[in-house]
Amino acid sequence: MAKKKQKKLPPFDKYHYYLDSVQAPDIDADFFRETYKELKKKNPKILREDFCGTFAVCCEWVKLNKSFVAYGVDLDTEPTTWGKKNLLPKLTKDQQSRITVLNKNVLDKSLPPADVIAAQNFSFFLFKTRDALKNYFKNCCETLNSNGILITDCFGGSGCYEPNEEQTKFKNYSYIWDQDTFNPITHEAMFYIHYERKGEKRREKVFAYDWRLWTIREIREVMEEVGFKKTHVYWEGSTKKGEGNGEFVMTETGDYAQSWIAYIVGEK
Ligand SMILES: C[S@@+](CC[C@H](N)C(=O)[O-])C[C@H]1O[C@@H](n2cnc3c(N)ncnc32)[C@H](O)[C@@H]1O
């Protein structure tokens, strides 16, 4: 009897899976616009997506309004080249013309001014000392327009004070978030993303992150030290089951969660 032939999977494309499993760029872009409007009572125009990777948020930003302009900043040409090949062609010519990708360091003093600077997916956790973090936030503050805001995210909870692994199942693959280490003395931790497609063996360490786990309070203090006039925390609401509901609201009191994600916003 002939064995049923297994359907051949397309070549593994790590940026495709990252976008599918980790990012929600349309929701992010909308949240950034709404947060600016809430704080400044007007529309923003210019977004700078620091640590932009495939600049997926820039691509969503320019869809929101015909006047919106986006700059993506990333040192590495590999993800930006992927974005140019896979995301830009899905936009209209007019939308494409309002995106500029810069293969530069986020610490570069000549980065373009912006109304909103977004540093997402905890990328600034790669700055491990207070001086290094200060240097980055200072550059953000100096390159923001006068009414500008910096939006970062942060995660925490008792669950990230020890190694742990969390698997999320998607249609044809699993995404595995692996916290490999945590050093309570330095607050440094090593993370990996693994992927496992149906019928294939697990692909180990597709992405690796060597981070310091900053606390919300430290982040706000450093923002204020470099000149941000006000800082705000947007904390996620929860469902009846106690899971995050994807709605982030400004508050000064967080509820207990084994694992949480929050946005921290600095107003220039
Ligand atoms: C965790 S990925 C974030 C990708 C995307 N922003 C997201 O939200 O998922 C971090 C990105 O930051 C870039 N990066 C690291 N250090 C940088 C620096 N000093 N300046 C600019 N980009 C940097 C890396 O090349 C990488 O693409």
Compact description:
This protein is 27% helix and 34% strand. The model has no long low-confidence stretch (mean pLDDT 96).
Explain this structure to me?
The protein is α/β, with parallel strands linked by helices and 268 residues long. It folds into two domains: 177 residues, Rossmann fold (3-Layer(aba) Sandwich), CATH 3.40.50.150; 52 residues, no CATH class. Helices cover 27% and strands 34% of the residues. The chain has seven helices and twelve strands. It has an eight-stranded mixed sheet. Strands 6-7-8-9 form a four-stranded antiparallel sheet, covered by helices on one side. Strand 4, helix 6 and strand 5 form a beta-alpha-beta unit. The longest helix has 16 residues. The radius of gyration is 19 Å and the shape is globular. The relative contact order is 0.14. The model has no long low-confidence stretch (mean pLDDT 96). S-adenosylmethionine binds next to loops.
Classify the helix fraction into a percent range. 25-40%
Largest sheet: 8 strands, mixed
- Return the CATH class of the largest domain: Alpha Beta
CATH superfamily of the largest domain: Vaccinia Virus protein VP39
Cα separation of the termini:
71 Å
Order of helices and strands: HHEHEHHEEHEEEEEHEEE
The parts where pLDDT drops under 50 for at least 5 residues are none
| Number of continuous helical runs | 7
Name the bound molecules: S-adenosylmethionine
